[in-house]
Amino acid sequence: MMTPDPVTRTPKEAHTPIAGAAGAGVPVIAPGHNFATVTDKISAIVLTRRTSLGWWFGFAIAFALANVLLVSIGYLVAVGVGVWGINQPVAWGFAIVNFVWWIGIGHAGTLISAILLLFKQTWRTSINRFAEAMTLFAVACAGLFPILHLGRPWLAYWLFPYSNTMNVWPQFRSPLVWDVFAVSTYATVSLLFWFVGLIPDLATLRDRSESRAGRVIYGALAMGWRGSAHHWHRYETAYLLLAGLATPLVVSVHTIVSFDFAISVIPGWHATVFPPYFVAGAIYSGFAMVLTLAIPIRRVYGLQDFITDRHLNNMAKILLVTGLIVAYGYMIEAFMAWYSANTYEVYMMRNRMTGPYGPLYWALLFCNVLTPQFLWSNKIRTNALLLFIISLIVNVGMWLERFVIVVTSLHRDFLPSSWGRYEPTMWDWGTYMGTIGLFLALLFLFLRFLPMISIFEMRTLVPDAKPDQGGAR
Amino acid sequence: MKPGDAPEFWRTLAEKNGANLDELVGDEFASRLPDSFDAVERRAFLKLMGASLALAGMAGCTRQPPEQIVPYVRQPESIIPGQPLFYSTAMTLGGRATGILVESHEGRPTKIEGNPSHPASLGATDVFAQAALLDLYDPDRMQTLTYRGDILPWSAFLGAMRTVTTTEQAESGAGLRILTETVCSPTLGAQIEEILARFPSAVWHQWDPATGVNSAAGLRMAAGNDVSAHYNVESAAVIVSFDADFLACGAGHLRYGRQFARRRRPEGAGCRLYAAEAMPTTTGAKADHRLPLKPSQIEMLARALAADLGVAGVNRGAALPADAQAWLTAVRNDLNAHRGASIVIAGEGQPAVVHALAHALNATLGNAGRTVLYTDPVETHPVDQVRSLRELADAMAAGDVDTLLILGGNPVYTAPADLRFAEQMAKVRVRAHLSLHANETSAISHWQIPEAHFLEAWSDARAFDGTVSIVQPLIAPLYGGRSAHEVLAALSDRPERTGYQIVREFWQEQRGATPTGARGAIAATGASGATGATGATGATGATEFEAFWRKTVHDGVMANTALPTRAITPAGPIAAFSTAPPAPDGGIEIAFRNDPTIYDGRFNNNGWLQELPKPITHLTWDNAVLVSPATMERLGGAARPDFTGGERGQIHGSVVAITYRGRSVRGAMFPVAGHPDDVATLHLGYGRARTGHVGADRGFNAGALRTSDALTFGTGAQIATTGDTFPLACVQYHHLMEGRDIIRAIPRAELASLKKEEKALPSMWPVLTDEQEKVADYKWGMSIDLNACNGCNACVVSCQAENNIPVVGKVEVMRGREMHWLRVDSYHQGEVANPKTYFQPVPCMHCETAPCEPVCPVGATTHSSEGLNDMVYNRCVGTRYCSNNCPYKVRRFNFLQYQDWDTPSLKLGRNPDVSVRSRGVMEKCTYCVQRISAGRIQSEREGRKIQDGEVTTACQSVCPAEAIVFGNLNDPSSRVSMLQAEQRDYALLRELNTRPRTTYLAAITEFNPDLSDK
After folding, report:
1. Quick one: DSSP state of residue A3?
2. DSSP letters along B315-328, please?
3. DSSP element (H, E) containing B187
4. A380: domain range?
5. Which of A194, B320, B451, B977 could cross-link B324 (Cys pair, CB 3.0–4.6 Å)?
6. Across-strand partners of B736?
7. Count of domains for chain A
8. Which domains does chain B have, with CATH numbers?
9. Phi, psi (deg, nearest 5) at residue B340
10. Chain B contact for A409 (CB, 8 A cutoff)
11. Which residue of A76, A88, A419 is the best one to mutate when testing the B interface, meaning the one whose CB has the most B CBs within 10 A?
């Protein structure tokens, strides 16, 4: 059944650009689009466009890396967590660094989907679908690590509260249990949010699909969507509710993840600045990842009309702001360490800067503090290539930040007799690269089989959608 | 299921060929009971069982083992399953015995403790006694008697020895040589004397690298004949050590360590220790004033001191460095002020003349007979061991030796290189070697005889003061090993005797309980007429002997057998004093020392000792070329922590080649703060050519450089870097305190004015008030006295033995993953060239507000009502947050499957009261909760509370210095309560407010005000 078109507009109004949204008149969607072109362009990528060689190539690499992950996990579970480089005193290494990195990345998607929705920022529309997908895949990758890093991962279910014959519940004062709730809530809500948001588009694909398999699969997933007013009404309510649920998660999930560190006694971890610092860092790294994905995607799939320079500009601004907050976090951490005059804190900071992992700390400052300063320039903010490079650097920088926090705080704490070091083994790298492979593989599959931009939401942006305003908003 | 039922399949060849085996074998699952079970069928059933067992090999699958297994039909007397028994015995090392008590579970020894009644132990043990248990169960032990590679029965050896005795009889034994280590066993000594009586031309050689030669030679020089010396440290106010590590090794060191620690207590009289030494040792660390000197310079120091204090005819030799002069003056004045209450002691690393000088000094100062006691020799047959070995080598080279019987030891590996022992030994026609492990000497011996471990054999031995102990076995020899007594019996006219018979017969003779009459008077000395059964024969004598035997074996000490002290009077002036000492050749001096954990190499295959961090260097699994940091730099070497493991695991040392007298070895260099410049200390025992799996490919053989004329140090060596590096497993490389309040030390004079610090700061955590805590019967706590601890590490091995802690191997130690629940940290204070070293044992603190408890997501670490931080292995999923959050880093994680599930002999030695942890599980010190439980069960059964001292942790029970005290803090009269109430008591990392139940007592320093640099 065809999706009924909303009321048609006059050709004249159809071609009036939308002005006034934030930015010097750069439109949220390029002019010249109507319902049909928007729908055609996006659904064509899934339904009719031939799978390019580039996609196969990229997917092959990602899939290969995902297999590396499989092998790494198999070996890890068979032999033990000692195949990684962790030891006494650094009992947490890559696994936790990667866990926090991936979770942090996910926050951008939720922010774009939920918070920007509630703030009625229309520029979120073309990026929210794949940003939310990115969140889901990032959370999937992140969620592997708390299970894999256990000494006895087959007992991971003990962290969940369930009635059992042992009559034992998880120990609720532990931040790791809070993580369980936070991450599982986050995964669940994100999945629901994303899926609910997909339903109208799945229906579009169902209606347009030319293969029987497509019709059946998309039809099943579309759950009988007919686009009736009732459906839309319920949809809007559900979507807003989920957005409301997801919004606090943007702040709470990474706050709870930061509690993994802040609750402990270790200098370098035991800091009250961690919750806002981590949340800002999460949004920072998330937007960097969104940019890292958006820029190549829009180029490869020719989506510059939908993901315009305005989007890049806005995302770059958020990057700059959160980057400044993160820079503040670094600054206040260093200041407080000195100001406290606490031997352990002072040493921790000095060790971070000049100790064996010192070069990583300075690389971190370069990546996270220096690099985003380029984003003050409008020219750079609208230069896709430079933005791409900057976003990559920020991704690396945010990984380095988690590494510095986890490893440098652990490797030298209170008693010098227990000072040691950490070096990742090839299995650490294999698992990490493997999750990147898993992430990319899932992303490639998403790009191939699902509409990467929210079709029906984009339709609300074209001039046809605003009959009473005649285009001005 | 009958064969006819089965379609074309067959189960056995006989069946295939048509035979009906139903009668014999029954169905395949013969262990299943038949359906009806009356008397007739039962007999048939048993026949079936027997037959099926016999045919087990032919059927498709094995069921029961083919050996005869016998359940307890009648339970052996006094064994209650689950209740351990304790047996006294003694361990001999370096020719001296230390009494021990061995805990035995169901007939298997599982833990070694000290014997409180034994003068050399006083309840303590050292690392070697603790680890001896693992040697018993070592799967790499020699397990079969072989002759030129063929497995032969014991009777074949007896037959061969019969041939030897017959042949040698003709020549009165001219071709027979017996080589033993230092013999302090009266029975063994008597056996050999008997053999020498029968074969007058046979020679008994002794070579024991664990004993060393210099102190005996020094005593011979000082006394003019053979004597033994021991010390009365509890009467000494000043001790001066010339390279003598008397607190950590050597005869009587456990006793000296305890006496020294007691004198240093606040209530003790104090004891100022001066140590002049090359390689830093634990004694040097305990010293109030330590002077690093080259080994050759220590002789100059001794000479100068002797000359200053009035020993006649002493040539001062070369001049001393300037700082040594000030040191010497202070020492001289202090000794003068404490005549008769001081000790001058020289170490095995110094030549005989230094020992003689020390004894002369003691004589001059009036210490002899008071703090320095001389006795008749403890060894049954003292000899100059270097000369003895050299004579043997020469005899072998000349082809004079037809039969060489080596009882224990490893002369091919330990003999000085210039003797070319292996080459000469190859000329001997019949070579027999009795050994625990197949080693280098076994490799060129015809007869390789597996030795019975001392826990498997009957014997006897003398302690440092002469006290005799009977060595009784705890388990029948696991591999049919034989003791030295039984091997020597093969040369006698009654070769079938067992060790038990031999030892008993000897003592029966001594006690006059056999019709042959009393011989000698070893059984009771110094007590007139107290020989008991002298002259008593027949039945009364036998009963009396049985009572004496049972008591002696039970106590672990033979009453009144300590050798009486005597005076020594040298014949005249000692020539060596007035002879000018040789000038050093320049170049680097190398010092050869027995390794602190591997000793002379005999413990090379012992995983506990290989993995035990050596005191001061904290190296494991390898030896290194130990030099001062300045020397290392000058030689162009470096020691760099790797990123894997870092300062708590892996240090890359530059590989150097050491050339000395034309021989060369390669080893990795390792810097030691406090080591004198231009000296390299090399530890023996490594670089083995033939050893078990644990010890293979470890370190380098420093003994390959050693010559017989310079056994303990030599001059004129060259060291050159090779450009390679070698990874060393070092578990603590960072020894600075970094301005943190970790070790506290207070001068004795300021003790009185010390204020006790409040242990607890206000806390937001729910902590029990004192009243609430008193509700529980017991409030367990521990006090560790840093003043007493001398870093010997016995507590570490004891904990490992008691709690089934796995050995992880060098690779994992290099990754920073060793599993010791208790570690002994060492920290330096002062300058790098000569720091003051403090030791700090760190077990789990059992914090009242433990940071590890709230962070465990599954609640695997909880707090008991008595204050223990409990670790629930079954619940642990291994997130390791507890380890991260522990500020003391006392938790250990099973990153891989470290426990050996498979090796059968190792299973025997495990303590059945403690779980064996699997991979992925966290573990840590539990205050020996199994011992607390055992104590609680016992006390509840008897309707009373646990008394103070009834429950001792494994670390506490073995500490020679009594540094660790555990007990009930709710009992104000318990020792731990008193100690925690002392002014010196402090909590480690108190400002974190973890409220640890284990607290420390600050060290007390007794610096000499004249030596202001300290």
Report:
1. P
2. ---SPPPHHHHHHH
3. helix B186-198
4. 93-137+175-421
5. B320
6. B828
7. 1
8. 6-21+736-743+775-1006 (3.30.70.20), 146-207+398-413+428-563 (3.40.50.740), 228-375 (3.40.228.10), 588-733 (2.40.40.20)
9. 85, -10
10. no
11. A88
**Interface probe, candidates B889, B898, B988, chain A, greatest A C-beta count within 10 A:** B889
Whether A334 is covered by a domain: the verdict is yes
Alpha-carbon span B248 to B254, nearest angstrom: 7
Residues B663 and A340: their CA atoms lie apart, in Å, by: 59
Averaged over successive runs of 10 residues, the pLDDT of chain B (1014 residues) comes to: 43 46 44 44 49 43 52 67 89 95 92 96 96 96 95 95 90 92 96 94 95 92 93 96 94 96 94 96 96 94 94 87 90 95 96 95 94 95 95 96 95 95 95 96 96 96 96 93 95 91 94 56 40 48 89 93 90 85 84 95 96 96 96 95 92 96 96 96 95 94 94 94 95 94 93 81 74 81 96 96 97 96 96 94 95 95 93 96 97 96 92 95 97 94 94 96 96 95 93 94 92 62
Residue A354 banded pLDDT, cuts 50, 70, 90: very high
The distance of B653 to chain A (nearest Cα, Å) reads: 17
Can you give the pTM of this predicted structure? 0.89
Of A80, A91, A343, which has the smallest distance from its Cβ to B883's Cβ?
A91
Chain length of chain B: 1014
For residue A240, what is the domain's CATH number? 1.20.1630
Which residues numbered 587-646 in B keep a CB inside 8 Å of some CB on A? Answer: 641-646
- Distance from the Cα of A162 to chain B's closest Cα (Å) equals 12
Using a CB–CB cutoff of 8 Å, tell me whether A147 touches chain B.
no
Please compute, for residue A90, the number of CA atoms within 13 A of its CA located in the half-sphere on the CB side. 32
Residues 555-584 of B with CB under 8 A from A: none
Q: Are B662 and B705 in contact (CB under 8 A)?
A: no
Mean pLDDT rounded to a whole number for chain A: 90
Determine, yes or no, domain membership for A299. Answer: yes
The ipTM is 0.91
- Give the tokens for residue B65: 């083992």
Select from A151, A177, A343 the Cβ nearest to the Cβ of B878. A151
B711 beta partners: none
Å between B826 CA and nearest CA of chain A:
8
CB of B649 less than 8 A from some CB of A: yes
Query: Residues B351, B357: contact at Cβ < 8 Å?
Result: no
Element housing B93 (H / E): strand B85-93
Is A261 inside any structural domain? Answer: yes
Residue A340 touches chain B, beta carbons under 8 Å: no
Q: Is residue A266 part of a domain?
A: yes
Sign of the torsion formed by the C-alpha atoms of A355, A357, A363 and A365:
negative
Q: Would an 8 Å CB–CB cutoff place A393 in contact with chain B?
A: no
Cβ proximity of B861 and B882 under 8 Å: yes
Return residues 178-207 of A near B (CB < 8 Å).
Answer: 180
Stretch 202-261 of chain A: residues touching chain B, C-beta under 8 Å: 260
Percent of chain B at pLDDT > 70 equals 89
Cα of B607 to nearest chain A Cα, Å? 20
